[in-house]
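Practice problem: Acetyl-coenzyme A synthetase
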Amino acid sequence: MSEFPVHPVPASFSDAHIDKARYQAMYQRSIAEPDAFWGEMAEEHLSWDALWHTVRAFDFSNGEAAWFSGGILNASVNCIDRHLPARADQTAFIWEGDDPNDSAHISYAQLKTEVCKLANALRSRGVKKGDRVCIYMPMVPEAAYAMLACARIGAIHSVVFGGFSPEALKDRILDSDCQTVITADEGVRGGKPIPLKANTDKALAACPGVHTCLVVKRTGGQIDWHSGRDQWYHELTGVAAGDCEPEPMDAEDPLFILYTSGSTGKPKGVLHTTGGYLLQATMTFKYTFDYRNNEVFWCTADVGWVTGHTYIVYGPLSNGATSLMFEGVPTYPDAGRCWEVVDKHQVATFYTAPTAIRALHAVGDEPVTRSSRASLRLLGSVGEPINPEAWEWYYRVVGDSRCPIVDTWWQTETGGQMITPLPGATDLKPGSATLPFFGVELALLNEDGSEIEGPGAGYLVIKSSWPSQIRTVYGDHQRLIDTYFSHYDGYYFTGDGATRDEDGYYWITGRVDDVLNVSGHRMGTAEVESALVLHDDIAEAAVVGYPHDIKGQGIYAYVTPMAGVTPSDSLRDELVQLCVAEIGPIAKPDVIQWAPGLPKTRSGKIMRRILRKIAENELENLGDTSTLADPGVVQDLIDNRSS
Ligand code: 6R9
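Answer key — structure tokens:
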């Protein structure tokens, strides 16, 4: 699979939680006796007010799954209260601001008070169990308090990434009928303000159901105020009590909704429930990162993505760990920022995305090597396939050839890691996510749905339920069935392709559907196309991904102007701005090619396969073009390819 050598488990991990023999034994038991295995795991890793009556029940024909039903627990108690006897003074969060001179430590005792105050403040505004609360925040501790305060009172949080536009925010608020929004006056990233409250105001103009907008004062910047609806966070929490009775939650009561892109239509509200999600978060954090007491763990994701949910907030806190939350960007004030932060806070584990690794690699070694990084013990990667060259640089330069790299494959829908090395148990192959986590039964399928035995390449599917399985698409269970459970009967369809080598290691090759992965951010080609065709001068648009050195995938848009419209640079700029306004800056097309016509079948279907080849500049190998309605279109696109 790769010419790069295998990296065996280093001696420094010989005392890891899980070694090779233990991995084998636990994995086999998790498959052979799942009820016994998971029951024991749930008792060992979580704190319950009442135990369940049924460990697991699932039916892949209708996408239903229930774990630990009847069990009663509260996620905020598991993340905070249960640690207080031993860890009241231990740091729960280290906050590192955008400005290198700004940082703060929040202890578990302080976390409890902050979360309870906010929980009481929310209750004072009428928020109760089952209500949806939208969180549109910068990377400040209040974002985590907000998630945990919702969990404390049984409200369902829906975090919307702070980089999304007002339009995208509005769609998400309306889809899950959120009546409360928590935001900040402004965010700060790379020295620049981000107008979160102004964006929220725009979104809320079309959301009459929102009765409360809580505003964290982050910068003190000028904002508009809608009296009655808008409330200062510090004023409401300032008068609230620092103790709050947690809501008893059934393991299957919802914990959160998180929107993610699919190949068709608008983003889906992925719903996760309390017990199973928290167990997967807790166990994967402990075992994948081989977490040891008092270590500092840093996941660079934003809390607006699932990686931030599971590995900044729920996984670390459920283990009583110290989690670092970073407000800024890896290149501000310069490309050495991450390693400065590692030294400043003595970070032991650093978990980031391949796009960041490639961007930092491109700048050269010096910003890394001028730091010590002696505190680092383990490195991690998530979000997209990591190319072996980037892996080797990360290993050799960042980790000084001492730190294993855990390349973790998972999805918003899986809630927690699914394919991952365990650093004390798994020999590493650069570019491979390696082996399944406990209880994860994988298969590779051929096009016709038959299972591939042994080494081979195919569609990656999952054969049985896991605790943090997506429970539904909020408000549209049929969409869950159509998207994940109807491609191949009896399997969960991941949307990814993979190969399996002779050692049973998995190598994820990327999405096989119309989902782009741009810098680790998921986006449906349909979403970008819908934004482009909103322009009055545009008749049609087709969007594909193409290989991009830093982003992994770039956005390549073929755009057909209306008859009589002459394409121009200003039209191009307007289209880019339209994508930013409809979705956010992450959706800016990298390339816009004017296309007088798009390649279509005689039945009118756009042949994306051909568009992808042209974008990738693989012109010799366009495949079968015999079904094209007008073959001349393709030659025109090739002749006018944007390079
Ligand atoms: C956690 C997260 C999920 C999609 C997934 C796959 C890609 C994630 C990966 C990876 C190769 C890895 N992906 N981790 N591909 N190797 N280690 O990223 O969730 O935003 O829902 O994206 O990301 O294509 O299907 P999400």
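Discussion: The chain has 20 helices and 30 strands. Students who identified this feature from the tokens alone can consider the problem solved.
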